[in-house]
Predict the 3D structure of the following.
Amino acid sequence: MPNQTNLRLIDVSKRYASGRAVLDSLSLDIASGDIVALIGPRGCGKSTILRLIAGLTPLTAGEIEYPDPEGRPAYATPSAFVFSEAALLPWRTVRRNILLPLQLAGIDRNEQDARANAMMKLWDISHIAQRFPVQLTPGNRMRAAFARAMITEPNCLLMDEPFAGLDAITRNKLSAELMKVRSKQTFSACLVTHSAAEAVFMANRIVVLSANPGKIKEIIEVEKDFPRKLAWRESNEFQEAVTRVRSTLNESQEGVAS
Amino acid sequence: MNGRLQWVLPLVTAGVVLIIWICLALVDTKHEALPSPFAVAIALGKESGQILPALGRDVLAMIGGFILASIFGIVTAILLVSYRGLSLALKPWFAIGRMTPLLVLTPLMIISPLPIWVSLMLITAIICYFPFVAIYTPALTTTDKVLVDLFKTYRADYRQQIMYLRFPHAFPSLIKALRRAAILAPLATLLTDFLAGSLANQPGLGRLLREYYEAGGDAEIYALCLIAAFTGVVLAGAVDAFAAWILAHWHDNDHGTH
């Protein structure tokens, strides 16, 4: 039985007021448990896709559907965003940052507490619950940002280069942790990245986009079961997948240049 | 050691200034340039029956004006942020207001039907009001775009955005505006009273200053200026202490928002 669809983009187009077309008739399904990576040259509309899904930018044409199965908890949201910076409120503790979405949704205080505790446990940050963002390492700030995003059990977790501000070691460590979290709690996600290696490691489908306007050039499936461990990155299978993504990406970029 | 020096050295400085003052007064035997500190102390004692009630009246107008300015400053800042039309309508006038030396308004007290202390308080309030427009309103409008986007992704309404994001985000600027207003308040009251206080049956420090000047009472003028400076220091110091305390406790933690 195929996995249930969590998010569906149907012929989505986006055109700015200046008339420039950013996206043209883009269709994409994200099933439950899918991690889809969006990769492509600059200006292909990767981040715009996430902003459209999150409702931060209006669509010009097309439709975005969130099939809403029954029995979803009251706090559930269609999507949740993890930005390239942690975007924590500096005047709130880690714990209060994490429960913010539930507070905004008017969820009962006890449920807020229970969910926040569960998320902090999931991301192994219970020990820093009472700290303020300024007191955290960049890695812990991002962990708190992930915990906040996942507290609402979103249909789709939207990640816009979430590791861009981290050093290489922390980046690898955090992407492995995200895989570990995924093995404990299945979620769907859409990841924007510039790194072919990051896309291959984290996603089961990689959407390579071409630019001007943004279109799907190719969808590459990564046939490796979750959870994936850091050691897999050293394998030939991984390197071959990365090479394939890079060469598709290069073709896509050559298309832009010509 | 440093802690003790922090207190001792300023006292030593004050002692040195006092000694220089005494020496200058001894050289200037006719006391044309400045009266001796002893003469000032005697004048202060002799005139306290006049100076202290005048100080009381000025302090009331000063604190009243400061509180009025604070309330109106905060309310109008929130209104300006909430209603773009209002902001557009008032923006140029606020800019002109910031450039106008508001003390020129003081003659309005002459034609005002209000009791003189009310007029004094209103002029003080007008002068103290502009730090809020200049510092607090821009801080409310220039909240980090990523944080605004974060709130939009959680479908936060405008009230929630003000309460949970813009208000706490601009809190340090509010403190800055309060500090600036506290510094302006004594200056505004004293100068307004000096310029237009002659109508009052019960004079404030400003009018008393003019009376002493006309009577050639140098020592009395010095005594009055010392009292006025001390009052200014006390008000600015009180606001500073309040600001330091509140900034140390304003973080939003599990015990609530301070």
In short: Chain A has a mean pLDDT of 90. Chain A touches chain B at residues 54-56, 77, 79-81, 83, 85, 87, 89, 91-93, 95-96, 100-101, 103-105, 130, 132, 152 (CB under 8 Å).
